Amino acid sequence: MIRLFASDMDGTLLNSSGFVSKYTADMIHRLQRCGIEFIVNTGREYQSAKDALDAAGISCDMICYSGACTYDRYGNPSNIASLPKSIAKKILEIFERHGAFADISTESGKTSIADPEQFLRYYREEVDPALVKEQKVYFRTEKEFQKMASAVQYFENADSLLETPIPVYKISTTFCNEEKTARLRKEIETIDGLHIASTAPTNLEITQEKAQKGYALLRYARQKSIDPSEILAIGDSENDYSMLSLNLGSTVAMANASPMIQQICRAQTLSNDADGVAVLMEGLVMERCFYEMDRRYVFGI
């Protein structure tokens, strides 16, 4: 029986407009009332993930930064797997050689070693067009974008960041040019101890090797005394691979998932725009209701 439902966000829990639908939010609440744990497992930073969930009235634990840090529903962090500073330095040096913008996620949130003008230009010229190409929405309104931009912590250069005790969780970048992304990835892969994933051919997400969605999910489940056979995981892109390739109770691909993800999952649901997550949850809720009815009949409770 499923006791833990783990869901990716972008392309999975969120529709193409970047929202959790009312149907999906209602089903999450019903799932939780039935006693099934619900956790978001996302590449997003904590505040970005929380904002999207808050907008739908959802309160749950979260695995963020592609597995680098887990948060309870109150925002308390645990199970931190940050990049060693020496390795982060090598990554940033390679980024510089390739002209790649370093989109850095730290304990403090979104962090930049470029100036504010460069940061904004990167999002306008690289990230926004890439999201349009992927049919995904990261910032639903200009207000959300400005909120993110105003919260960025700026450092003069890589050394000034790496000399601080602030843990670096993830270093990402986005190129509209997929060939540039591929060349950058090839050189990053020469560094040992890393996990490299993508949500699309236009982007790279780099964490330390234990900062993966799969590792983080199993660690979380152990702490909750939940067996892997009692976990259902669902996602759509390469950065979900470490989670969906596990021997879990059920692994489900969205209809809009990449071919790689559809191939490794044991089941498939509807697309994110057709409330595929909610449809799956409704089946689980009905299954749990029938189980409880049968249990009460057998044991007379």
UniProtKB/TrEMBL annotation:
Coiled coil: none annotated. The keyword Hydrolase applies. The keyword Hydrolase applies. Keywords: Hydrolase. PROSITE patterns: COF_1. GO terms for molecular function: magnesium ion binding; phosphatase activity. InterPro entries: Cof, HAD-like_sf, HAD-SF_hydro_IIB, HAD_sf. One of its GO terms (cellular component) is cytosol. SUPFAM superfamilies: HAD-like. PANTHER family: HAD SUPERFAMILY HYDROLASE-LIKE, TYPE 3, PHOSPHOSERINE PHOSPHATASE. This is Cof-type HAD-IIB family hydrolase. The lineage of its organism: Bacteria, Bacillati, Bacillota, Clostridia, Lachnospirales.
